Amino acid sequence: MSYVDEVLAKVKEKNANEPEFLQTVEEVLTSLRPVIEQNEEKYRKAALLERLCEPERGISFRVPWVDDNGQVQVNRGYRYQFNSAIGPYKGGLRFAPNVYPGIIKFLGFEQIFKNSLTGLPIGGGKGGADFDPNGKSDGEIMRFCQSFITELYRHIGPDTDVPAGDLGVGAREIGYMFGQYKKITGLYQGVLTGKDIPYGGLLGRTEATGFGVVWFAEEMLKANGEDIKGKTVAISGFGNVAWGTAWQLQRLGAKCVTISGPDGYIYDPDGISTDEKIAYMLELRASGKNICAPYAEKFPNAKFFPGKKAWNVSKDTDCKPDLYIPSALQNEIHLEDANTIVESGCKFVCEGANMPTTNEALAYLQDNGVIVGPAKAANAGGVACSCIEMGQNAGHTVFQHEDVYEQLHAIMVNIHKSAMEASLKYFGKYDLVKGANIAGFEKVADAMMAQGVV
Ligand code: GLU
Questions:
Q1: Which of 124, 163, 344, 359 is 20 to 30 A from 78, comparing alpha carbons?
Q2: Which residue's alpha carbon is nearest to atom 5 within ligand 1?
Q3: What is the C-alpha separation between 98 and 258, in angstroms, rounded?
Q4: CB atoms within 10 A of CB 10
Q5: What confidence score (pLDDT) does residue 329 get?
Q6: How far is CA 301 from CA 246, 269, 271, 328, in A?
Q7: Contact 95, 167 (CB under 8 A)
Q8: In the prediction, which pLDDT does 336 show?
Q9: Using CA of residue 10, residue 13, residue 18, residue 23, what is the dihedral sign?
Q10: In what order do the strands lie in the sheet with 323-325?
Q11: Ligand 1 center to 79 CA (angstroms)
C-alpha cells in the first residue's frame, strides 16, 4: 500500500466521526501523491503525514455566560493548534451552532496550507464555539466573548497563537475578546487580529479576504486568456467575504449579480455595483437576522428566489455567469450544483468560503473543464492581512491603506503563481487545486523535517 493510502486509512479510523476533517485530509493527501512518492521512504520513516494530520494540541473548554434573563447558559469552546512548523498558530474563531471538533479540525488543517501559501511566517490553527450569535443582544455577545477568552487567554499570545474572526466573529466580538485579554493579562499586545482601527486594527483587513479572492480570480482568468473586466459574476453569501468580493468586483469593472443567505438568493440584473448597494450588504449583515430577502424590497429591480442557491440563476433567469464565487459556507456546492454550473457553460469557479465544494462536486467540475481556484489559495488574503496586522502591532506602527492593498495584491499574484508552477511541475497541467496543496505543503514539510521529531 502506498504511504498516502496507509495514512488515509489510519486517519479515517482515528477520526471516523469527523466527516469534514476527513474530507479535507483526503483532498489534500490525494493531491500530494507525486511529491510523497518522490520522498516516500524519508517521509514514512519520519511519520511526516501522520504528524501533519494530528493537531499539535487541541483544547476544549466550558464557556458559561449569563443571558439577558439572568439564566446561565453553557457552551463548548475549542482551539486546535494544528501546526507551528513555520510560525505561531494563526487562524480564526468560528461561532456557530454546528461547531464541533470535526469542523474546527477541518478548518485548522486547511489553514496550515493556506497560511504557508501566503509566504508569510504563520502556522495553522482554528477555534470557536457551538454558540449561535444570531438573535443575541449586544450584552449577551459581550458576556459570551469575555467568558470565552477568560479560558482561552492562557493558551494564546502574539508569539504563540493569534486568533482572528471567522463566521459569527467580526470586529465587535474581537473587540470584546481583546478587552478581556488586556484586562486579565495587563498586556497591550497584538494577540488577536481583525481588530477595529482605533486599537491596532489594520486598514483594509475587513475587505481583505474578498479583495484577495477577486485578485486571485483575475490571475486565474488572465492565465486562461480572459479579462475579469466586464465579466458577470454570481456569488453566494452576504457576509464578510461576499461583501469584500462584491466591492472588489465593482472596482475591477466586473458585475456581481447575486448574493444569497439561508433564506434563498437575490438576483440583481443591474449588478450589485453601486456604493449604496455594497453598503447595504453591511446593513443586512449587521441586522443579525441572517436573511438576504430584504435586498429585493430595497432595490425593486432585484428578484428574490426563496429557498434556492445562487447557482440556480442560470436556470431561473436568462443570466449566464462567467464566474462563480461561493462565499458562504463549507459544502455548498454539491454534485447537482456542479452539474448546474457545468450546464450553464461557465468555465470558472473561485472559492471564497472555506471548502465550499464537496470532493465529488470538485471532481465533476474539473472533469468537465471548469477551472477551480481552491479556497486555501483564493481566500488566503484575509489571513495574509492578519499577518500584516501582527507586524504592524509588533512594530508599534500604523500601515496605510494603499500599502496594505499593494502588499495584498502582490501576495495574491504570488500565490496564484506558486500554485500554477507546482501543478505544471508535478502534473504537467494547469490545476490550481493540486498545485496549491503541493506549494503549501512543501514549505511546511521542509520545516518539519528540519526541526526533528517534535
Ligand atoms: N478566518 C479566516 C480564514 O479562514 C481568517 C483567519 C485569520 O485572519 O487568522 O482564513
A1: 359
A2: 383
A3: 26
A4: 14
A5: 87
A6: 18, 7, 10, 24
A7: yes
A8: 97
A9: positive
A10: 303-306, 264-267, 255-261, 232-235, 323-325, 348-350, 371-373
A11: 14
- pLDDT reported for residue 248: 97
Q: How far is the CA of 242 from the centre of ligand 1 (A)?
A: 14
Cell numbers describing residue 395: 512594530
**Which of 103, 162, 166, 167 is the pocket-test mutation for ligand 1 (most atoms within 8 Å of CB)?**
166
Q: Which residues pair with 107 in a beta bridge?
A: none
Distance CA 23, CA 8 (A): 11
Cβ partners under 8 Å of residue 423, min gap 6: 429, 430, 431, 432, 434, 435, 438
Catalogue all structural domains in the chain, each as residue range(s) with its CATH number. Answer: 1-54 (no CATH), 55-189 (3.40.50.10860), 207-378 (3.40.50.720)
Written as nine digits, the cell of 32 is 500530494
pTM beyond cutoff 0.70: yes
Ligand 1: which atom is nearest the Cα of residue 383?
Answer: 8
Q: How far apart are CA 424 and CA 429, in angstroms?
A: 5
**Is residue 115 within 6 Å of ligand 1 at its C-beta?**
no
Q: Which residues of 350-371 are buried (b: 16+ CB within 10 A; e: fewer)?
A: bbbbbbbbbeebbebbbeeebb
- Comparing CA positions, the residue from 160, 315, 323 lying closest to residue 249 is 323
DSSP calls for 103-142: HHHHHHHHHHHHHHHTTSS-EEEEEEES---TT--HHHHH
168 lines ligand 1 (CB under 6 A): no
Ligand 1 contact, 92 CB (< 6 A): yes
Ligand 1 in reach of 386 Cβ (< 6 A): yes
Among protein residues, the one whose CA lies closest to atom 10 of ligand 1: 383
Q: In which order are the strands placed within the sheet that holds 57-66? A: 57-66, 72-83, 123-129, 89-95, 161-164
Answer whether 316's CB lies under 8 Å from 305's CB: yes
Question: Catalytic pick from 126, 195, 277, 434?
Answer: 126
126 catalytically annotated: yes
Give the nearest ligand 1 atom to 380 CA. 10
**Tens digit of each residue's pLDDT (9 = 90 or more) over 70-92:** 999 999 999 999 999 999 999 99
Binding site membership of 354 for ligand 1 (Cβ less than 6 Å):
yes
pLDDT < 50 stretches in the chain: none
SS3 215: helix
Which positions ≥6 away from 85 have C-beta within 8 Å? Answer: 123, 444, 447, 448, 451
What spacing in Å lies between the alpha carbon of 93 and ligand 1's midpoint? 8
Place of cell 470532493: 359
